[in-house]
């Protein structure tokens, strides 16, 4: 089936200009490499939930119930989302104190599609988009795929440095059209933007006339500290903001069910854009989630996850202290979510470390993956979500072995 | 939750240029309207499969088996597609005489995503794209969303008029970058491009250096006539071609599982582009389809569908002869697929007829929806797939009533 070179070449010079900005995900590529190495690799790379906490038996029961609804459970559904899921989600959000109008809600194929839709609608060639540094790889890939021009703003232990934001934008000489941020339990750093920074960020966006894209996959998974108001709550009536959420982290990512909240006029445009992208989100799993919510399983489930993820974070930090305290390494202290960010001494390369770590039997994502400028050569992301404390501790031990084997010290 | 007007307005002037080309689907909008009218509407609008032929009980059994695979069935999967589904699909294709290399195959979120990926990679602002007229609404919406400039080529009872294609391209003054075609049981017309036209189309594409996007959702559903070689088979080694397929029509559309076949270099770029769109197709339903294929259910299932859709087409044509022969109407005679195309006498407006037909209790899609220039004001698409012969005949009777009530005759 491999076509002759001439035909292959026939594609090469016909890519659209934007294709130059379409880059593969380092995380995904790493996953393939990981799987090809050895079977017992400790998986600290992907942001997957704890497998033991995916309610598989309950999902099976609910899937049977959905299938018994008949052929409609396997047919096209409304582009806005399945009616049952929309109703249950709006009810659940209201119970959490978030009143959302039906016309402000769109069900998406994972949270990722919400980011894609916002960028497709708003990011044109050369448009300035603020991103955190480090930040979520697939989001910068999306912005890049629509030819946006990114301004990277450094983060510290409290998330985006908003003073640096003002400076970087001043240096860019033009206000950003869009500010992309993960303010709560950030990916990859695990940091959370404090209230004062949230307010200042919104002030700046208001002054600049910028849109805000608030990416919030993790805020329900807070295990330490007090909840903060979302940017959406703080921006209401002042700054145009779109909030992207997902069930991937609190239920299961393979469902590919997320949701976006925005001004009804924007949601209507997103519905239009969706129809020529994937038509609608898969019906069966929307109804699975609807039944999960209707049976009031979510609160107990999330409570259990919070306890477990705190346990996992603490165990990983204990292992890091045990193994890496003498190595000059430092790491963040997330109050929720899936990730912590490990920084090794200057001069060490986590990209060089990556294959050695795989050989030693542990996977992570090198820091350079989380920045369009390849910053953070000596940092890496560790997910404490997927592996249990014993396995994760073994992973950290293997990581230390790999570091020791690099001959850096 | 409705934001003040100033904030709503804050979005309005920030849309990217491409957003002007993002248009909603008339078919989807119609569906919402249909549902809001009356419950017993005969559904001749949407291209949904026969509900009685969706193997719901078998799906339930297979879903239970997939769920019992454990948490992995609900986790992220490879962007290229679930390994089990890829293996089963490649085996099934080989059994049909189609040898496809693994690196030429991408599992997509419905066939629609394949079209979106091709357009995102290849269609830039102002790029010329050939489309049939009439053609699939969501495909022209996708091309438009990436700012492609379309050349509409008329169809007759044998699909795209390839002489007209040559003329239209000559008139455009530049070769098209991409030719989008549904050569087999076309949507909406139900027509099929004969072999001689297929060969001529490929000759023209080769001469122009054009890519071909072969959209093929229906070819397995042939119920009359002999199978023709696909454009992909005819183009091999001569013209760069991407073929888009789906399980939506032979299994169920709510699964959102399709596949794309292309040169490995193009598939690799599509994988990159996917990661920042929806990450991967939902795992559970990919594995459901894999098990359906592994159990060798597909051939019997498709054989049953062919018999049933032929029965439905013949019943609809009989009803049309009975009700509309005296009205100056004519219609196509598809050898497979879901649709036939009905043309009323000049001067009649199927857009005006649409609300009256809904009031009478039957839904169709007005012809103007299938052309970017709003051609075919007096035509409409009828899906014979979704309703059984008795209901479809009742639908045609209601359609005639609605026509009679327009006072056109």
Determine the N-to-C terminus distance of chain A.
51 Å
Question: Largest sheet of chain A at a glance?
Answer: 8 strands, mixed
User: What ranges of chain A have pLDDT less than 50 throughout 5 or more consecutive residues?
Assistant: none
CATH superfamily of the largest domain in chain A: Type I PLP-dependent aspartate aminotransferase-like (Major domain)
CATH topology call of the largest domain in chain A: Aspartate Aminotransferase, domain 2
CATH architecture of the largest domain in chain A: 3-Layer(aba) Sandwich
What is the count of β-strands of chain A?
14
* Mean of all residue-level pLDDT scores of chain A: 93
Structure description:
2 copies of one chain form a homodimer. Chain A has helices spanning 5-12, 26-37, 56-67, 83-95, 110-122, 137-145, 162-172, 195-208, 231-235, 264-275, 283-294, 298-324, 350-360, 389-405, and strands spanning 42-43, 105-108, 128-133, 149-156, 159-160, 178-181, 211-215, 241-246, 258-261, 330-331, 339-343, 362-363, 365-366, 379-383. With 409 residues, chain A is an alpha/beta fold. The first copy, chain A, folds into 2 domains: 17-54 and 300-405, Aspartate Aminotransferase, domain 1 (Alpha-Beta Complex); 56-295, 3-Layer(aba) Sandwich (Aspartate Aminotransferase, domain 2), CATH 3.40.640.10. In chain A, the strands form 3 sheets. Chain A has an 8-stranded mixed sheet, sandwiched between helices. In chain A, strands 10-11-14-13 form a 4-stranded antiparallel sheet. In chain A, strands 1-12 form a two-stranded parallel sheet. In chain A, strand 7, helix 9 (231-235) and strand 8 form a beta-alpha-beta unit. Chain A is globular, with a radius of gyration of 22 Å. Chains A and B meet through helix 1, helix 2, helix 3, helix 5 and helix 6 of A and helix 1, helix 2, helix 3, helix 5 and helix 6 of B.
